[in-house]
Design a protein that fits this description.
194 residues, alpha+beta, 8 strands
Length: 194
């Protein structure tokens, strides 16, 4: 009986095949995991950017004043909104404008500072009025897709686009105000307060 403490060539080939199959499965699992991680991080970045823009606009709309003069009436267009707020103690018009060329949303306060409030490129921005007269609402839609270049897109990055919508009930729609709100607004205006 000849007993050697070594491996035969067939045993080595079987071990190499098993190790390569396990390595291939592990590699596939790791690449899928990392791919999902980076995709979710990109989508989360887009969601945060859209949320910051929308929250800034909503904060100003909550501070919107009821127009007292015709120059304070809101202007609502598809890519632009303008309304009156109190800024540093004065009544001033604030305007949000979407520039489709550079994909940025700008906030401009008349007599104040003009700022870009979007940190990433916005792919779409829409503002519209919903309803009529006493049931008027304001709809805002922001779509952020920071990877807009088609050449650089992979199939997995196509789903990173994020769209946030808000429907608001602003005070500058005077026809939607109740009689009590109209009374107190008139009283504040007569008293010199905003």
């Amino acid at each position: 009986m000849n007993n050697k403490n070594g491996f035969t060539l067939i045993e080595l080939i079987v071990v190499v095949m098993i190790v390569s199959m396990v390595s291939a499965v592990a590699y596939k699992m790791m690449t899928g995991t990392f791919s999902q991680y980076f995709k979710s991080q990109s989508k989360l970045t887009n969601l945060r950017a859209a949320s910051i823009i929308l929250e800034r606009i909503k904060a100003d709309i909550r501070l919107a004043l009821i127009p007292v003069e015709a120059s304070e009436n809101p202007v609502i267009e598809e890519k632009k909104i303008s309304f009156c707020i109190t800024d540093q103690g004065d009544r001033r018009m604030v305007t949000y404008t979407y520039n489709s060329e550079n994909g940025m949303v700008e906030r401009d306060v008349i007599g104040g500072i003009k700022r870009i409030i979007s940190m990433v490129k916005v792919s779409d921005f829409k503002i519209s009025e919903l309803g009529e007269d006493a049931n008027k609402l304001l709809s805002i839609s922001i779509m952020v897709d920071n990877e807009k270049d088609i050449e650089q897109r992979s199939n997995s990055s196509m789903g990173n686009q994020v769209e946030l919508k808000a429907v608001l009930y602003p005070r500058f729609f005077t026809e939607t105000l109740s009689d009590e709100e109209k009374f107190w607004n008139l009283a504040r205006s007569a008293g010199g307060n905003t």
